[in-house]
Amino acid sequence: MMEFTLEDLKKFNGKNGTPAYVACDGKVYDVSASFLWKDGEHQVTHQAGKDLSDEISKAPHGVELLEKFPIVGILKR
Questions:
Q1: Phi then psi for 30, rounded to 5 degrees?
Q2: Which pTM does this prediction carry?
């Protein structure tokens, strides 16, 4: 499984044709296929290429929605 640093993750922001990856609780998910993540943005609130662990805890849904997407790696701390 691929390992990402926060710096690596920033490259996958969903802009200019790059995949949209987000991290949560140490897992990196590919959300590129979701229309809700078009151009790497979700609901004008969340950005791809970031660790969303803190933001998910404040979102109206939990990590279960991210778990529907493929896991492409783990986030190294």
A1: -95, 105
A2: 0.91
